[in-house]
């Protein structure tokens, strides 16, 4: 099963007519799932179950990410269709998560049910801590990245117990660095959508590094059209994110080199290309603006 096949097999559970017709779904976590699949392929004790484990992990992650899309505002505020979409996101998230229990129990993988369930509990605890700090506007830019990487890596860290020797030691760092790159890439893409800048890395960066007037503007007027976009440009947020992504990609490549497997390195290389390309493209755009 290639990484494309993992996504195709997951579609059997994700492409439900009612869900597809009435609500949007998050992006499939192809990168982290492919990372897990390839590393498990090199673990004698886990290789035989790599397809099942990759599939169920993708379904649990889709469940978590779908729940994350639920609007916290009152359901009736935006009309009947919007209310239905919100309700379906809750149900879809529950449905995706329930499939993992079913698939693992059928395979007799009771211990993995426990491990993944514990990981989900820890992810929810981290989310509560993050939301508390966000609601009080007491979050640093680096702290935001740290939380984001924790939330993306949480499920995948639960597979460390299936690995041995060098892989067991490196896996936590590998998935953490990979997740951080994914967060940074998502933040770069987020800059292209002015409607999604509230709560972005750039906002926390300005609250941390900006002038008193700019920090006050963010606290009091961040919903004002165009305000966040102009401030993000003023503080060169795109360039800073680009630099952070290049730095994190370099760190990720350093961890990969420690795996001491040319075959695995070749398999993982395509997974980091989006990070390399995004950083290079953004750098070129910034240099063009300056030039």
TrEMBL record:
Superkingdom: Bacteria
InterPro entries: HEPPP_synth_su1
One Pfam match: HEPPP_synt_1
Name of this protein: Heptaprenyl diphosphate synthase
Provenance organism: Cohnella kolymensis
């Amino acid at each position: 099963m290639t990484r494309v096949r993992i996504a195709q097999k997951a579609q059997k559970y994700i492409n439900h007519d009612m869900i597809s017709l009435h609500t949007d779904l998050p992006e499939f976590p192809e990168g982290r799932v492919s990372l897990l699949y390839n590393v498990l392929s090199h673990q004698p004790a886990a290789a035989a179950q790599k397809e099942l484990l990759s599939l169920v992990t993708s379904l649990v992650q889709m469940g978590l990410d779908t729940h994350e899309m639920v609007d916290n505002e009152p359901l009736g505020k935006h009309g009947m269709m919007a209310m239905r979409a919100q309700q379906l996101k809750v149900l879809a998230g529950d449905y995706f998560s329930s499939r993992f229990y079913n698939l693992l129990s059928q395979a007799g993988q009771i211990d993995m049910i426990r491990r993944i369930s514990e990981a989900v509990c820890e992810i929810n605890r981290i989310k509560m801590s993050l939301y508390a700090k966000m609601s009080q506007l007491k979050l640093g830019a680096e702290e935001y990245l740290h939380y984001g990487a924790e939330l993306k890596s949480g499920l995948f860290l639960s597979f460390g117990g299936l690995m041995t020797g060098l892989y067991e030691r490196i896996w936590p760092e590998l998935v953490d660095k990979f997740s951080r790159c994914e967060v940074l890439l998502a933040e770069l893409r987020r800059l292209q959508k002015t409607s999604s800048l509230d709560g972005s890395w750039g906002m926390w960066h300005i609250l941390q590094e900006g002038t008193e007037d700019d920090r006050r503007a963010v606290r009091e007027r961040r919903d004002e059209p165009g305000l966040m976009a102009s401030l993000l440009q003023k503080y060169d947020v795109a360039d800073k994110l680009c630099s952070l992504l290049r730095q994190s990609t370099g760190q990720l490549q350093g961890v990969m080199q420690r795996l001491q497997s040319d075959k695995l390195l070749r398999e993982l290389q395509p997974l980091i290309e989006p990070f390399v390309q995004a950083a290079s493209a953004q750098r070129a755009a910034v240099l063009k603006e300056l030039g």
